[in-house]
What does this fold into?
Amino acid sequence: MPAPIRLRELIRTIRTARTQAEEREMIQKECAAIRSSFREEDNTYRCRNVAKLLYMHMLGYPAHFGQLECLKLIASQKFTDKRIGYLGAMLLLDERQDVHLLMTNCIKNDLNHSTQYVQGLALCTLGCMGSSEMCRDLAGEVEKLLKTSNSYLRKKAALCAVHVIRKVPELMEMFLPATKNLLNEKNHGVLHTSVVLLTEMCERSPDMLSHFRKLVPQLVRILKNLIMSGYSPEHDVSGISDPFLQVRILRLLRILGRNDDDSSEAMNDILAQVATNTETSKNVGNAILYETVLTIMDIKSESGLRVLAINILGRFLLNNDKNIRYVALTSLLKTVQTDHNAVQRHRSTIVDCLKDLDVSIKRRAMELSFALVNGNNIRGMMKELLYFLDSCEPEFKADCASGIFLAAEKYAPSKRWHIDTIMRVLTTAGSYVRDDAVPNLIQLITNSMEMHAYTVQKLYKAILGDYSQVTEEEVLDILESVLISNMSASVTRGYALTAIMKLSTRFTCTVNRIKKVVSIYGSSIDVELQQRAVEYNALFKKYDHMRSALLERMPVMEKVTTNGPTEIVQTNGETEPAVLETKPPPSGLQPTSQANDLLDLLGGNDITPVIPTAPTSKPSSAGGELLDLLGDLNLTASPAPVPAPQISQPPFLLDGLSSQPLFNDIAAGIPSITAYSKNGLKIEFTFERSNTNPSVTVITIQASNSTELDMTDFVFQAAVPKTFQLQLLSPSSSSIPAFNTGTITQVIKVLNPQKQQLRMRIKLTYNHKGSAMQDLAEVNNFPPQSWQ
It folds into this structure.
C-alpha cells in the first residue's frame, strides 16, 4: 500500500477546493483511505493519519472513528505518537463516552514516567477531559507531582488539581498539604497556577476560605514585588510586569477580604498602590485597574479607597474604547446605592454617555442616570432625560418614560412642574408610554384642585395646539375625531365614547347630537365599544330620568401611603375604605380575591384567602332599576355616601389612620428573613406591627434579581391557614431589574387574633429569558416577634 500523504500536503490540497462540495469530496476520499489504513493495523503511519483526522475534525467533519486509534498511540513508547494520541483524546473524547475509561491505566503509567514531557502530556489530558471516576483514581498521582521540585510539572499539576476539585469536591483536602509552599515559588507560571488553585478551593469551601485568610500578607507581598519590580523582558506586557498574575492575585484577595475586617485592613495599602501606580494608557493597565476597583468595592475597604475606585471608573467613562465605558457604567450602577455621593460627582460625564452611538452604553447610562436622580438635581436631570427621550431610539422610549414618571412622582418640586413633566412625556413618547401612566396622571389631577384649569389648557393645547374659549360643538368635534380616527386604539375609543356620554349632563345645546353619536356605535364591530353604546343608548331611551345621577362626577381618589407601594383607595360612598372583618366571613359570602385560585394548587384545606371587605348594602334609589341592564353595578341615584354596616368587633388595619400612627415602634426589633432564593430571584420579608391592632402584622416583601436579564410579568401570591386572615396589596411594579439594580415591593397584612405561629405558602410566576417560570414555596421561619 502506498504511503499516505502528509498533513501539510492535505492542508494544501483542501485549500485549493473552489466549492464546499469539492472540499467535501476531498475529505471523504481521504477519510476512506484513513479507514483502510486503520483496518490493516498499519502502525507505521497511524500517527500521520490521526493528525490528518484531527485537522478534519477542526474543519467540522466527523472523526469519531479515530478514537480507538488515539488510545493505541497513547500506549506507544514514542513521544511523537503519545503527543498526537493525547491531543486526539482531548479533542475526540469526553466523559460521556465510556471509551475514555480505557485511558486511565495509560495516564497513570505516564504520570510516573521518567520524562517530564510525557508526564506533562498526561497531566494536560487529565486536566482537560478527566471524568469524576478518572479523577478519583488518579488524584494521588497528581498530588505527588504537586509536591515535586520541578516547576514545569508543578504548574501543570496545579491546573490538573483544579479540574479534579471541580469534578470531585470532596478530594479538596487531599491537596491542602501541597499548597503550603506553592506561594514561595519564584517561577511565575507556578505562582499563577497556584493562585488559580487557591481561588478554586476558597470559592468551593468556607472552611478553606477561613484557612487561607492567613495567606493575605504573603499575597500582598507578592503583588507589591510585582508592581515595584523593574523591567523584566520575560514577564513584561506593555510595560507592566506579569499583568495576568496581578489580576489573579487581585481576584483571590477579593474573595479572602469579603466580609472580613482583618483581611481587608491588610490589603488596603497595596490596593491603593496598585490603583495609583498602574499605567492607564494601555488596555493591560485598565484590566488591572478594573480588577482593583472590583476588589475595593467587594471588601470592607476604607471610604477614601472607595472614592478612589469610583474616580477610576469615572476616568474610564472618558476612554475612547466603548468596552471600557460600558464596563465603567455597569460597575457604577452596582455601587450607586452604597456610594451615592461619590458617583454623583461624575453625573455630567454619565449624562454625556446618553449621547453615545452605542445602544448598550446608552441603556446603561439611562439606568444610571435614573439612579442618580434626587430632590436636589431633579430639574436638571429631568431636562437631560427629556432631551434624551425626544431623540432616543424607539426601544428606549417606554423604559425612559416610566423612569421619568417614577422620578417625578418621588421628587417633584411642585404639582405644576409634575404635571408639565408628565404632559411633556406623553406628547413626546406617545404610544410608547405604558398603560399605568394614564391612571397615575388622572389621580394626580384629581388631587390637585387648584391646577384643574391649568391642566385643561395644557391637555387641550396638546391635542389642538391652541387654546381659547371653546364651544360645545368644538369639544364634541374633538372627541368624535378620536372615535373615527384609524390611529385610535380600542381603549382610547372607549374613553372617548364615555366622555361624550358624560358631557350629555353638562352640555345643554348638543344632547341630540350626543344621542346620534352614541346610537351609531351601537352596531360597531368592536364588542367593547358596541356594549358601551348599547348601554348608553338604553340610558337615553328607558332611564333618562336617572341619567344625571348615574353620570355624576367621579369622587376624588384618596392616595394612602403605607410602608410599601402606594395604594389608591376609591371612596365611592358605599363602603369604608378597606375595612376588614375580625371574624371569618359568613358561609354565604364568597371571597373574590385571586387567592382562591391558590387553594387547590397549594394543597391542604386549611388555607384562607385574602380578607374580604365589609359587606355593603344595596342601593335603595332609582338606580336599582338599572341593575339588570348594567350587571349589578351598585349604582346610586345620589352622590351622597351610604354608611357601611356597623361591625361589632373593633376595626383594624386601615381604620384610625388619621388619629394615631399605623405602626408600633417595637417593629424596629423584628429581624427580616429571606423567604425565597432560587435561580437569581430573592424574596425578603421585613415586618412591622400595627399600632391600632396588635393582632395585625404588616409584611413588606422585597424582590430582587441578580441575573443578567430582567424578570417581567412578576406576580406574587400568598395563602395562610384558616386561623389567619390575609390582605395582599398591589405591587410597586411587575418587572424586576437585572443585576440587583432595583426591587419590587409589595405589602401583605396578616390578622392573627389567636397569636399562633405564622405559616405561609407562596406562589411566584414571572417571565425570564423568554420562558414562563413558576414556583411554589412554604415559609415557616417567621421570627417570633412577628406573631407573638
User: Anything to note?
Assistant: Residues 561-667 have pLDDT under 50 and may be disordered. The chain has 32 helices and 13 strands.
